[in-house]
Amino acid sequence: MKNEPLRKIRLLTIFFIVALVLSGLTAFPLVAELRMMASWLGIDAQATPETYTGLKYWIALVNEGLSNTSGQYPFLMYGTDWLAFAHIVIAVAFIGLYREPVRNKWIIYWGMIACTGIVPLAFICGTIREIPFYWQLIDCSFGIFGIIPLYFMHVYVKKLENG
Hints:
Blueprint lengths: L3 H22 L4 H11 L13 H19 L5 H22 L6 H23 L4 H30 L1
Helix pairs in contact: 1-4, 1-6, 2-3, 5-6
């Protein structure tokens, strides 16, 4: 089955594109998402973050920070709009891989480099920005889980190249 690696590459590429677009789109409604998450966790909107501990404290604090920031300085939320846009633009780059995987295999390596770069970024900037360690690990998971489909794409491109 000569076309089997191509089919697998395309399926993984579609998965990767959809994951990038969806994760990017979630950066637009951050305030509403945090409000919803706080509600799901049973965090009282009137309570201060110090009322809680652990994950609830962190979500309450981020919710308060985003609500206050977006209310008083809405232009700062423009940064997350650009984050969303960047995810979508990165997803568009993977269309080249879908169309011509062997010719555009560099996109896989570029994606792997980006996924690998998430780990030091999360630990360095997370520490500087006082992000809890467990949340830094969650951020790292995007790079770790992202590299898995990219690795398999790499394997299937090699099979496609070698016939």
